[in-house]
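Reopening this ticket.

The earlier resolution said the output was attached, but the attachment link was broken on my side. Pasting everything inline this time so it's all in one place.
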Amino acid sequence: MGWASPRELVLLKEHDVKVSCTPSAGCRLGFGSMEFGRFPEMLEMGVAVALGSDGAMSGNYLDIVRQMYLAAGATKSQHLDATVMPPETVLEMATVHGARAALWDHEIGSLEPGKKADLAMFAMDGPEWRPVINPLANLVYACRGGADTVIVDGRILMESGVVQTIDEAATLSECQRRAEAIAARSGLGELAHPRWPIL
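Inline output:
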């Protein structure tokens, strides 16, 4: 949601509307959603503001960690205040608020008894994790997605960086083949060529 008016903020609160903040799409497409979205105000009012990417074609990536960085950084820049949108807040947007927005907060979004065991574990031995004073700050400001191990509902989907459920190399190859075919059939391939020669 972008360009929210004061009246719309009140309506969001009154009707328990769930909002999605998609910083990469706003930056990529020039929507002004981070500048005029009023996400800190929504959060302060108790509105569920989830964090997302708005799809690979408009946000260009689906990396929730990069989305956290953009949400935090763009909001700080807009407000000229480094204390706005701290790491804890954007992590809650990516987890607790995301579950609330999907109406699944009774099942996922936080580590609590009775909820599904959904975990993303990061190896903290890389340079982006040094020094570690506040690990949430390292995650939001210095890292990118690419958890070491991912568990969904107790099932290991990725372990030590290797996807366990599909043939990742074959899937990526198939994605490339299909994208090239779609670009050729639609005529959009010519529009997407880089302006510089690629060697």
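Reporter confirms the inline version is readable. The CA atoms of residues 99 and 105 lie 5 Å apart. Residues 168-186 form the longest helix (19 residues).
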